[in-house]
Specification:
Layout (H helix, E strand, L loop, with lengths): L6 H4 L2 H37 L25 E6 L4 H17 L4 E6 L7 H16 L4 H11 L2 H7 L4 H15 L1 H6 L16 H7 L3 E2 L1 E4 L2 E2 L6 H9 L34 E2 L1
Parallel strand pairs: 1-2
Antiparallel strand pairs: 1-4, 3-6, 4-5
Helix pairs in contact: 3-5, 3-10, 4-7, 5-6
Length: 273
């Protein structure tokens, strides 16, 4: 019995080639159609998920709150060099927090045990040290001015500081801690480059302070972002029982480094050896 040929066996070579080409074209067309459908559907999904022009979207920075020891009244020490750009950045971040909590926290401006910005930094350190110790009610207003303008003389007037009392304290502080003498004694400079500044030497040693800024909360260093809200959250975490002030929201924007108003980028950069 004669075997029947299937469709493809019955074709001539030329016809088979044509059929093969047409089949390939059909397959490619089918794949192209599938790709088109996929793109169309995906596009509609994207349009449906995009916000309309009238929609306002905001992003809240992810503020990492450090783990800190707790106390009834948190003790916060901020170690700076008064002309360090990053120390100024952190000072600007803490000022709204100092105004918010007032005497509910024990907040202290401290000074790194060496300076990097010449004699003018020693003089400004001494000035801020004396303001804090003898006219602490003027400190915040003075720093709000100084961290922006860098003009110490005009800021003393803006904050209505008793300059006669201040100058007496500065003279006594310089004599007590030998700040100018240390500046003049180049043989004593750290690494032969940086004059020593011993006003808060014991605390520097106790907390292992290396540079500006360094924040210490309840006796331990804490890595805190340089925005008012980040500083507030770190301090609120240090209360045994958080006060109502912790419910307030401060700016989540980092202050700008160095002198000047405005905001900048959060950074972990510091002045230090």
């Amino acid at each position: 019995m004669e075997n029947k040929k299937n469709f493809f066996e019955a074709l001539t070579p030329k016809t088979a080639a044509i059929v093969g080409v047409l089949a390939g074209i059909g397959l490619l067309s089918f794949l192209a159609c599938l790709i088109f459908i996929f793109i169309f559907v995906q596009g509609k999904m994207d349009l449906n998920t995009k916000p309309s022009k009238n929609t306002v979207t905001t992003q809240t920075p992810d503020i990492q709150t450090p783990e800190v020891a707790k106390a009834e009244k948190p003790v916060v020490d901020l170690f700076i060099m008064s002309y360090c750009p990053y120390g100024l950045q952190m000072q600007k971040a803490v000022l709204p927090v100092m105004e918010l909590f007032k005497d509910k926290i024990d907040f202290n401006i401290r000074f790194v045990s060496y300076i990097m910005h010449d004699k003018i930094e020693i003089d400004e350190n001494n000035l801020q040290y004396c303001l804090q110790n003898e006219q602490d009610d003027k400190l915040v207003e003075y720093l709000k001015c100084f961290t922006v303008s860098g003009d110490s003389k005009s800021c003393l007037k803006t904050a209505k500081v008793n300059e006669s009392k201040l100058n007496s304290c500065i003279s006594a502080t310089d004599k007590k801690f030998g700040t100018t003498a240390a500046y003049n004694d180049k043989a004593s400079w750290l690494s032969g480059r940086y004059p020593l500044y011993s006003v808060d030497q014991e605390l520097n040693d106790l907390y292992g302070v290396q540079g500006s800024p360094t924040m210490v909360i309840n006796g331990a260093q804490a890595q805190v972002s340089r925005s008012p809200e980040a500083v507030k959250l770190a301090i609120c975490a240090a209360f045994n029982n958080q006060p109502k002030e912790c419910e307030e929201t401060l700016s989540t924007l980092s202050a700008s480094p160095s002198f000047g108003a405005g905001t900048g980028t959060d950074t972990a950069v510091e002045c230090g050896t």
